[in-house]
């Protein structure tokens, strides 16, 4: 980002890049391509892990997209919590300080699993973020978060995500509105703009629905409103 902002372009082309530390969003990838390799094809590998687990998964954006990671099931046992979709890890080769059903605070789903490899789709941080169109969207409270700033005007809200019959993601913002000056169509237009400005996906279905608190799904554990209900895994299983 520093190189891009300061228009530093006199660099030798880089054909391979190992990326770590933060989520590799499409916008970041675009800047890396343009700044480090002059828009030429660059092979970018993104690694996934933590201080506790070490690196245990890798993604190649050319093969499967930025949010899909390959891992070895013989070195890391991965579980997905049925309700929260949180990723839970148990290390199989780390004997001195092993991880035993370690909660990562990240959410995802297992796309494929066999004896040789597993494929994990990473959604983002648990409870307050979701992934659509290869981009993460954060709805946590933050001064520089425009999506949260817009949703905070409602009494309550819930983000529902599903997959349509053609396999495309559909996002519906269910909001409890008490401001009579706000119209459902206008809110849908603004939320559509906030989501699509990041993904760039013109075909994605983003909608808004005014509803009552009783229409929102509650957590079976806490009894509180679930901020995000991701039904994509349910659709896949069902």
Plain-language structure description:
The mean pLDDT is 80. The longest helix has 16 residues, at 184-199. The protein has helices at residues 2-5, 26-37, 146-151, 184-199, 232-237; strands at 16-19, 43-50, 54-60, 68-71, 76-80, 86-91, 102-113, 118-125, 129-132, 135-138, 156-163, 169-176, 205-210, 228-230. With 238 residues, it is an alpha+beta fold. It has an eight-stranded mixed β-sheet, with no helix packed on it. It has a four-stranded mixed β-sheet with strand order 13-12-11-14. Strands 9-10 form a two-stranded antiparallel ribbon. It contains five helices and 14 strands. The protein is 18% helix and 37% strand.
Structural class: alpha+beta
- Total number of helices: 5
Order of neighbouring strands in the sheet with most strands: 1-2-3-4-8-7-6-5
The helix content, as a percent range, equals 10-25%
* SSE sequence, one letter per element: HEHEEEEEEEEEHEEHEEH
């Amino acid at each position: 980002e520093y190189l891009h902002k300061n228009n530093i372009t006199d660099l030798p082309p880089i054909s391979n890049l190992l990326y770590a530390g933060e989520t590799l969003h499409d916008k970041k990838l675009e800047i890396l391509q343009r700044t480090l390799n002059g828009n030429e094809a660059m092979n970018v590998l993104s690694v996934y892990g933590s201080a506790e687990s070490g690196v245990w998964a890798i993604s190649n954006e050319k093969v499967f997209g930025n949010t899909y990671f390959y891992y070895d099931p013989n070195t890391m046992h991965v579980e997905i919590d049925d309700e929260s979709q949180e990723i839970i890890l148990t290390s199989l080769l780390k004997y001195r300080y092993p991880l035993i059903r370690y909660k990562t605070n990240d959410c995802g789903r297992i796309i494929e699993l066999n004896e040789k490899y597993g494929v994990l789709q990473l959604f983002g941080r648990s409870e307050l973020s979701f992934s659509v169109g290869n981009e993460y969207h954060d709805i946590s409270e933050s001064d520089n978060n425009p999506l949260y700033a817009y949703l905070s005007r409602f009494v309550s809200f819930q983000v529902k995500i599903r997959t349509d019959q053609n396999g495309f993601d559909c996002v519906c913002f269910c909001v409890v509105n008490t401001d009579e000056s706000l119209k459902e169509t206008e809110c849908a237009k603004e939320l559509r703009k906030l989501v699509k400005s990041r993904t760039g996906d013109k075909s994605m279905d983003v909608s808004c629905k005014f509803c009552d608190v009783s229409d929102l799904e509650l957590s079976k554990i806490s009894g509180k409103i679930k901020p995000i209900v991701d039904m994509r895994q349910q659709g896949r299983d069902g």
